[in-house]
Specification:
CATH architecture: 2-Layer Sandwich
Order of helices and strands: EEHEHHEH
Number of domains: 1
Number of strands: 4
Largest sheet: 2 strands, antiparallel
Shape: globular
Mean pLDDT: 85
Helix content: 40-55%
Length: 123
């Protein structure tokens, strides 16, 4: 879900198949950024510490270690992370974590959209 500076919401949802919640969170961030123009200032808000920490804490270490985590293992979901970083490099992105299920209106709406996609896929 993207909210424009004018206050309009752009919503997308879909079923990714049998991927993990981490793949879904990364894909959501990627698709959201794709909906913004290069050069835009973007506030990326997520309840996923995985996404937020990847953007704000882990990236430099992964790159320094040749896309290995602190234990020396390959970074999980590296192709998605690289796609996300390519998009953030083209924009001025601030990343902010919010607690899930804590009443944040856009986060609650994003959760409802995810649920709708799951129900539609199961039908």
């Amino acid at each position: 879900m993207i909210e424009t500076p004018e206050g309009e919401s752009v919503e997308r949802n879909g079923f990714l198949g049998h991927g993990t919640n981490q793949i879904a969170e990364l894909t959501g961030a990627i698709e959201g950024l794709k909906a913004t123009p290069a050069g835009a200032s973007v506030l990326l808000v997520s309840d996923s510490q995985y996404v937020i920490k990847g953007l704000t804490e882990w990236r430099r270490g992964w790159e320094r270690r040749g896309w290995r985590n602190s234990q020396g293992d390959p970074v999980a979901n590296a192709p998605l992370w690289r796609a996300l970083f390519a998009l953030t490099d083209e924009r001025r992105v601030q990343a902010r974590w919010v607690r899930g299920h804590a009443g944040h209106p856009q986060n609650e709406r994003a959760d409802r959209l995810a649920g709708e996609a799951l129900r539609a896929a199961a039908a």
